[in-house]
Design goal:
By secondary structure, this protein is an alpha+beta fold. It is built from 4 helices and 6 strands. It has one domain: Thiol Ester Dehydrase, Chain A (Roll). The chain is 20% helix and 34% strand. It is an enzyme of class 3 (hydrolase).
Length: 165
C-alpha cells in the first residue's frame, strides 16, 4: 500500500511526499512553490487542502481496505507562503465497519505553526462488503432536484429588497 500511495500521480505533480505511514496514520509534506500562490501572493487554499486531503487518503487507506472520502472539511488559520515547507498529518479518531473519521492538521515546518485543521470521513469497502456510494445525477447531496450542470437555481429576487423600501 505504501508504494501505491507514494506513487500517486497528482501528489507527485504537486511535489507531495509521503513521510510516514502506519495503520490509521499518515504524514505527508510539500513545499509551497511560487506557482501555488494565489493573487494575494500567499499559498492557495486549494494547495493546502490538497495536501490535507492526500494525508487523509493515505491514513484512511493504510489498513489495506479501500476507502473513499465522503466529506472533508478544513479550517484555514494562517497563511502558507511560497518557499515554506508544510507537513500534513491525518490520524484516525473512529473506525467502524463501513465508515471512519480522521482528524487533519497542516503545519508549517520547522516552527510547527498551524496552517489548517479539520476532519475527514471515509466510506470503507470491506472485503465482500458493499461498494462506495454511487455518484451521478440524483445521487449527490442535492438529489434529483439538482438539475443539469449550469442550470439556474431558484433564489431570492433582487426586487424583494426593493419592494420593502
Amino acid at each position: 500500500m505504501r508504494e501505491r500511495i507514494a506513487a500517486d500521480p497528482f501528489c507527485r505533480l504537486l511535489g507531495i511526499h509521503l513521510e510516514a505511514l502506519a495503520p490509521g496514520y499518515a504524514r505527508l509534506s510539500m513545499t509551497v512553490r511560487p506557482d501555488m500562490a494565489n493573487f494575494h501572493g500567499v499559498g492557495h487554499g486549494g494547495a493546502v487542502f490538497t495536501l490535507a486531503d492526500a494525508a487523509h487518503a493515505a491514513a484512511s487507506n493504510s489498513h489495506g481496505v479501500p476507502a473513499v472520502a465522503l466529506h472533508v472539511g478544513l479550517h484555514y488559520v494562517a497563511p502558507a507562503r511560497p518557499g515554506e515547507r508544510l507537513v500534513a498529518e491525518a490520524w484516525e479518531e473512529d473506525r467502524g465497519r463501513r465508515t471512519a473519521l480522521y482528524r487533519l492538521a497542516v503545519r508549517r515546518h520547522p516552527d510547527g505553526r498551524l496552517v489548517a485543521a479539520g476532519h475527514g470521513r471515509v466510506f470503507r469497502e470491506e472485503p465482500g462488503g458493499g461498494s462506495p456510494p454511487r455518484l451521478g445525477p440524483g445521487a449527490g447531496p442535492l438529489g434529483a432536484d439538482a438539475g443539469p450542470a449550469g442550470a439556474a437555481r431558484p433564489g431570492p429576487s433582487r426586487d424583494d429588497g426593493e419592494a420593502q423600501r
